[in-house]
Amino acid sequence: MTEPLLDLDGVSKSYPGVKANDDVRFSVDRGEIHALLGENGAGKSTLVKMIYGLVRPDTGAMRFAGAAYEPAGPVAARASGVAMVFQHFSLFEALTVAENIELGMENPPPRGELAARIVKVSKEYGLPLEPDRLVGDLSVGIRQRVEIVRCLLQDPRLLIMDEPTSVLTPQEVEILFGTLRKLKSEGVAILYISHKLDEIRQLCDRATILRHGKVVGTCIPAEETARSMAGMMIGQELAHPVAGSFSPGEKLLSIEGLSLPALGQFGVPLSDISVSLRAGEVLGIAGVAGNGQDEFMLALSGERTCAANSIRLKDRDVSRMGPTARRRVGLQAAPEERLGHAAAPAMTLSENAFLTGRVRKGLASNGFSKPSAIEAFAKDIIKGFDVRTPGTATLAGALSGGNLQKFVVGREVLQEPVVLAVNQPTWGVDAHAASQIRRALRDLAERGAGVLVISQDLDELMEISDTFAVLANGRLSPVRPAAGMSIEAIGRMMGGDFSVAESGGEHAAP
Amino acid sequence: MDLSVVDPVALFVGLVAAATPLLFAAIGELVVEKSGVLNLGVEGMMIVGAICGFATAVKTGSPALGFVAGAAGGCVLSLIFGVMTQYLLSNQVATGLALTLFGLGISALIGQPFTGVKSPTMARLEIPVLSEIPLLGRLFFSYDIVIYLGIALVAAVWWFLKFTRRGLVLRAVGENHDAAHSLGYSVVAIRLAAIAFGGACAGLGGAYLSLARVPQWTEGMTAGAGWIALAIVVFSAWRPWRVLLGAWLFGGVTILQLNLQASGFLSWLQSLGIPAQAQYLSMTPYLITIAVLVVISADGSKARSNAPASLGRTFTGSG
Q1: Across the interface, do B306 and A94 touch by the CB < 8 Å criterion?
Q2: Is A257 helix (H, G, I), strand (E, B) or coil?
Q3: Is residue B78 part of a domain?
Q4: A440 pLDDT above the threshold of 70
Q5: Which residue of B has its CA nearest to A88?
Q6: What pLDDT is recorded for position B178?
Q7: CB contacts, 8 Å: A75 with chain B
Q8: Which whole-number Å values give the CA distances from A424 to A257, A334, B198, in the listed order?
Q9: Do A53 and A47 form a contact (C-beta atoms < 8 A)?
């Protein structure tokens, strides 16, 4: 047995309030395609950033090719033979393919020679490139080729790929896999990060599964089913829903055949979403990131309007209304991105309170704002939701993530919405603040509102939801009662197989 | 009307000289903007270059030393801007405007004892044989050395940006400073170097005004040339040879306007009932700039417009 190419021994990394990686141990052999599998926030990105020298581990040791490996930065990592293709490319749009590649090399050959090498190497690996094209004119798939060829020209020994297929068409995925297999046959090790289980089964020799920053299992993907791997990824224990007291009232929100085209080139179109939400109900919507969550949220908040009669609030058609009009009738939203979307970072807390509370809290009259009312509203939020801040004049951007999130959720909850939609309410928030936020959402539902929670944290959804659905590829599964959902069923629904949900019967009858 | 006053050869020779201060300032600003920095202080750096150059030339009696001092003056002033925007992360637009006001003020202060003084003149570069060719000699070989230097500088900048690795890195920094940083390039150091180069060029342009064009010192003598240089950079779509074209166009309009006024062309138009004014002529370069901008931005993709994508954005170094 030869020594592995890369060996991680008890690597840990903490950020304030969260342990991103905890005692991670695994190894990658030469000529192996090794998958790193885990949900969003499981610690995959932090781990590969440490291997690529962008982040330094707190404790633990790494070995590369038989020697201690402590890269001071990406340049040192590249010099050791570690190359990385980022999920969001580091390319220059106004420069040509050849210029982009030259910029990523330490000692580039003269221009003419480099162009010839690009053509040769890119053909050899089945990723043909034209060196003189402007990167800005290329499709996303071709841009990724530029990044890969940039890595290949430096003869890497370990190639890290961070969710490479999330931006590719199925045909491009096939081409990429061909290239990776060829590299493997030449002895290059590939660390492949993904949460697409089918791809990993097709491509990878071994998989290491991360959950909450810890290695929870290793397997040979070819011998596993997508379902069993999803089980390891999600974990075996799910909290039991607290929704014992669930007794739904009148129908508040009904969505019928909601479809929206994709937004931007990375967007996902929503197709024919139908769901309803009743008073006192918390509906949890799960799904892997990038399956239409952002688009669905924009459609609910009114930032994107949709076809008439597709969204109704208590028999009133709100589909064509903008965000302010929707707030006025009681459909409110708290988006995922705290800084810049849910709150304006450079404005004070009272100003931020005014921004969404103006209509429902009557914070303005005749075009003038009412400073004392705004102040009182902001103070209510701070007091009611335990927001740790010196005062209402603090800038929103100065608050910690958890505190700002409590403020953002509190601001909507205190306006007593008819229906509240929240996306990732506790993303990046410490455990204590997270439980306060969940409690507040439950309480809101108990007061007779409808709450729709989009989240990638299954434990969270199981804890607070009465009913449960999955968003996969822009489609929404049928709604099922959250109690009694099995890991297996959720795993299949996340993969786009909704038959489990359908056979589970109709909407949870009280 | 007497159009015979307008001699085409004299017109061309005049416009090349009139364009030279603009050419220096604009080619310097082009390099600065290509690195992603918008320095609106060109006017200030020019006028400081003008007085530093003039004062040095008068004291030493050497125009050549004057040009060196002009470049140094502009360079020092630009580095104030550089430190403020690159290390202290101040807003580039506000800092650039402040630099112009500061430059105008300090040049007036330094220049007080020099008002009305005559500067030593520069010898014209008499290239033997070539300058004696009948028409071509006057057209191409009758200028002072600084004019040739300006054209050579355009060629050098073009070559540097297009063919050298350092030029490529400079463009990359202006295009996407976060990506350049993650590839391991020092964004701040590269931008400071570009800012210093731009300052030196603007200073040279100013010195040419006070030492060769006018040649004397008057307060505020740049009279907006720095702003025209900024317009030329946009007009040129950040391409060096088009900067030369733009500078000649703007310089040409100035000269043409003076000549047409002298020829009585305007009063002839007025006698025909056309309400022509000299100001209309002065406006045309700016109108052309606006038209070019509209055409560029109507043409879709940002990459094609050739504007550096990080232009004017503050780099915080956290990328």
Answers
A1: yes
A2: strand
A3: yes
A4: yes
A5: B179
A6: 84
A7: 184
A8: 24, 9, 48
A9: no
- Pairwise CB contact (< 8 Å): B175 & A74: no
Phi, psi of B216 (to 5 degrees): -160, 175
Domain presence at residue B255: yes
Backbone region of residue A302 per phi and psi (left: phi > 0; alpha: psi in -120 to 50; beta: other values): left
Decide if B268 contacts B209 (C-beta within 8 A): no
What are the residue ranges of helices labelled H in A427-503?
431-446, 458-464, 487-494, 499-503
Q: Which residues of B are less than 8 Å from A79 in CB distance?
A: none
Q: Which of A103, A111, A134 sits opposite B303 (nearest CB)?
A: A134
Name residue, tokens 């439950």: A442
Which two tokens mark A382?
């701070």
Contact between residue A246 and residue A280 where contact means Cβ atoms under 8 Å apart: yes
Residue B204 domain boundaries: 3-306
Retrieve residue A292's tokens. Answer: 């239409």
Would you list which residues of chain A are within 8 Å, Cβ to Cβ, of chain B? 73-75, 90-95, 99, 102-104, 108, 111, 134-137
At the fourth CATH level, which superfamily is domain A251-502?
A: P-loop containing nucleotide triphosphate hydrolases (3.40.50.300)
Give yes or no for residue B319 having a pLDDT over 50. no
Q: Domain boundaries in chain A?
A: 6-234, 251-502
Structure tokens at A44: 């995959």
For tokens 């700002």, the residue is A404
pLDDT at position B303: 42
Task: Tell me whether domains A6-234 and A251-502 share a fold.
Answer: yes
Nearest chain B Cα distance for residue A60, angstroms? 25
Structure-block tokens of residue B122:
């520069």
Q: Is B314 contained in some domain?
A: no
pLDDT the model gives residue A3: 81
Q: Between chain A and chain B, how many beta carbons pairs sit less than 8 Å apart?
A: 56
Total number of domains constituting chain B: 1
Using 50, 70 and 90 to split pLDDT, how confident is the model at B125? low
CB A83 within 8 Å of CB A154: yes
* Range A6-234 classified under CATH 3.30.70.330: no
CA distances from A172 to A86, A206, A473, B44 (A): 17, 23, 18, 54
Q: What is the ipTM of this complex?
A: 0.79
Helix and strand element counts for chain A (H, E): 17, 23
The amino acid present at B271, given as its one-letter code, is S
| Residue B317 maps to a domain | no
pLDDT interval class at A507 (50, 70, 90): very low
Three-state helix/strand/coil letters over B36-105: CCCCCCHHHHHHHHHHHHHHHHHHHCCHHHHHHHHHHHHHHHHHHHHHHHHHCCCCHHHHHHHHHHHHHH
- 3-state DSSP assignment of residue A463: helix
Q: Do the bridges between strand A82-85 and strand A214-219 make them parallel or antiparallel, or are there none, so unpaired? A: unpaired
List C-alpha distances in Å: B138 to B34, B208, B257: 35, 20, 22
Chain position carrying tokens 């004392």: A372
Q: What whole-number percentage of chain A has pLDDT above 90? A: 37
Stretch A419-428: mean pLDDT, rounded?
A: 88
The pLDDT tens digits of the residues spanning A231-265 come to 777 665 544 445 556 677 889 999 999 999 887 66
